[in-house]
Specification:
Strand order of the largest sheet: 2-1-3-4-5
Number of helices: 18
Number of domains: 2
Shape: elongated
């Protein structure tokens, strides 16, 4: 957090670049790009050191002699070994222990090996743990079936110790890379929540906006990847405002042209802050283009009609609705009916996508709309139809709680 604080201080001291969208990160973004570079990520997370402690490997095999064999092959490595006789005991261990790698016989006692892999990859707590299947059963079909069920690697007995050690080392190194990417994303989301907290009047705007956007996405029948992008966009859409001075961001009067130019720059600045993260690529159009208008009079690119990315148009409507229905020091909150009428008026003026506005307003007018929206970011304990979306909702909710302690 000290590193994050130092970068924020540096941002506040640099001169703001005039509005535009250069290909390279301008000075005020370099600090953020630095946060996400390889140099900024602890080297141990990239597999270049073991100084943070031993990796934990869970061995799942009905035969103790087989577990002892694997332990003997890996005994020289910096590994902590846990053992389970069957899938049920393996899941009991996973409930209480963080595990970095699972090495399993293809037919663990007490259940089908394919089902074991599927359960691991569908549960939000275990879906990112790599699985190495070891088996004595030859056959292309078996290997394909296990890889298709979620296994990451496949070894056939008799085992070559050097191959086992190399495969385990590679899988653990890849796991650390995944962990480091999640850590970098966490920095960005923490920064986004921090930006929101600079304005005490917005309350839980990001959380509400994320839920509204996902609700509209679901009403349109969008796939889960788009719903996840919308949820992330709800938190990250205004992250570029961290580069906007408080004197401009919280000015009570009308902004002059120079100040307005700086304010508009938060769109492409936010895009450049997030651009080093490949996993955030689907979110970048939301961040950059959520202030465009249907008639082409918006910013920063003056896009018109369907040239405006759909996800940006979705989040834009949710953003407008939440702003209208939230109280500010300079205005009272509009009722949902009043907000819907104002959004429909903007569609008539040519500012908003008329078809999208129609779907949005119909959704908002549904009697159980508020309840359905709240459920979208409630992190439940059970399995969900979309484990990736559920995991994202849970991690963001947990992060928000920790930041606000």
């Amino acid at each position: 957090m000290e590193r994050l604080s130092n970068n924020l201080t540096a941002i506040n001291r640099v001169e703001i670049t005039p509005a535009g969208a250069p290909d390279a990160c301008p000075p005020c973004e370099l600090a953020f790009c630095g946060l996400l570079s390889d140099a900024a990520v602890p080297r141990v997370l990239l597999g270049e050191s073991e100084s943070l402690g031993r990796a934990t490997i869970l061995l799942v095999d009905r035969a103790e002699i087989n577990r002892q064999l694997i332990k003997g092959i890996l005994k020289a490595g910096p590994y902590r070994m846990l053992e389970a006789r069957d899938p049920q005991s393996a899941f009991e261990i996973l409930e209480r222990e963080p595990v970095d790698l699972i090495v399993a016989d293809m037919m663990p006692a007490g259940g089908d090996g394919l089902d074991f892999c599927r359960r691991l990859k569908s549960h939000r707590r275990t879906r990112l743990i790599p699985i190495l299947i070891i088996t004595s059963v030859q056959g292309f079909d078996n290997e394909v079936a296990y890889l298709d069920s979620g296994a990451d690697e496949f070894l056939i007995k008799p085992l070559q110790p050097a191959i086992v050690r190399t495969r385990v080392k590679t899988m653990l190194r890849n796991k650390r890379v995944v962990d480091s990417l999640e850590e970098a994303e966490s920095i960005l989301f923490a920064l986004a929540v921090t930006v929101e907290q600079r304005d005490r009047e917005t309350g839980n705007h990001c959380q509400r906006l994320a839920a509204l956007s996902v609700a509209l996405g679901k009403a349109l029948g969008l796939p889960s990847d788009d719903l996840i992008a919308l949820y992330r966009g709800g938190y990250l859409h205004d992250i570029g405002k961290v580069a906007v001075p408080d004197a401009i961001l919280f000015k009570r009067g009308i902004l002059n042209e120079e100040e307005w130019s700086v304010m508009r720059s938060h769109t492409w600045k936010g895009e450049q802050i997030c651009c080093p993260m490949r996993s955030l690529k689907p979110v970048l159009p939301i961040i950059r283009n959520h202030h465009e208008r249907w008639d082409g009079t918006g910013y920063p690119d003056g896009l018109a009609g369907e040239a405006i990315p759909l996800l940006a148009r979705i989040l834009q409507l949710a953003d407008i609705y939440d702003a209208l229905t939230s109280r500010r020091s300079y205005k009272s909150a509009y009722t949902p009916e009043e907000a819907v009428a104002m959004i429909e008026k903007e569609a008539e003026m040519g500012w908003r996508d008329p078809e999208l506005v129609s779907v949005f307003c119909e959704m908002v007018r549904e009697p159980n709309f508020v309840t359905q929206s709240a459920a979208l970011f409630a992190a439940g304990e059970g399995e969900t139809e979309n484990a990736a979306l559920q995991s994202m909702l849970e991690s963001l909710a947990r992060m928000s709680r920790e930041l606000l302690k």
